Amino acid sequence: MLTRRFIAVSRLCSTILIGVTLLTGQFALAQDNSQGRYRPDGRQLAQGVARELGEQLYEVRTYDPEPRVAEFSAATIFYPLTLSFAPPIGAAVLVPGYRGTAEDYSWWGPMLASFGYAVMIIDTNTVEDNLEARKQALLAAVDFIKNENNDPDSPIQGRIDTGKIAIMGHSLGGGAALQAARELGDDLGAVIPLLPYCCELGQSFSGDLAGLSAPLLIMATAEDTVAPPATHARLLYDTADGAASRVYMEFATGNHMMANNTGQELAAMGRYAMAFLKFHLDAQPRYEAVIYGDQEAPFADKFSRYDTSR
Questions:
Q1: Which label site among 34, 73, 236, 285 has the fewest CB atoms less than 10 Å from its CB?
Q2: C-beta of residue 62 within 8 angstroms of C-beta of residue 79
Q3: Considering the domain boundaries, does residue 101 fall inside one?
Q4: For 252-268, how does the pLDDT look when each residue is reduced to its tens digit (9 = 90+)?
């Protein structure tokens, strides 16, 4: 009798232990590391946008692949935790501005990955790389994330829809994104230059953007003294008339560094970038009004100019 009771108690304890282990494992897998490896800012901003627009949020993870390419020195990839049977996701690649590092823009990773995109932020070979080098870095990064999709050792293997790739860049990186978009043509899903600097440092824009066909969203600020809109962002927008669609968003206030971690209007910038990707990469029609409709308060009050062309 004592033996049977001991066996029964042992089985009960084992069952409880297994149950606790499973629950603990499930809890660990579901944990959001927004207070851990990456800055919490982007995740918190995403939560606010999700509440406003009723959009689903995903947990986010990161990893730092070894680039082993000549065009850029390092990268961090942020990706959403999606179900194994979920359809492949879109991706965005971002290059920093002059003298900027990937860490300076790290809020963009959890901001966009929370909405279901893989986000790769790269470090250039030197912080003073010119526009041409940044363009080449973006082109290489697009190839790199596609290769990660085929790498059995990559956590994003098979999870990227390589037909849904966007590129982004700030300042000199924004100018580089436009030039890279010219070369990528119809293979690119969207391009988002952030306060773009038109050309090589100290030069005036004298070229064209023929070949740029991807949907284009340019963010600028009327108070930019480094790259004044008239000779940079707005000039580039007007020149890119071959794009499938164009949006020019000019904030009334904010400086040239407003796209990085310490910038002004991060929630609004993230909101519109996400909506632009949802509409153009994922073909979600409800975001058409967010991007192309009449802007209403409180967002309309943030802009000195908001123009679209389709």
A1: 285
A2: yes
A3: yes
A4: 999 999 999 999 999 99
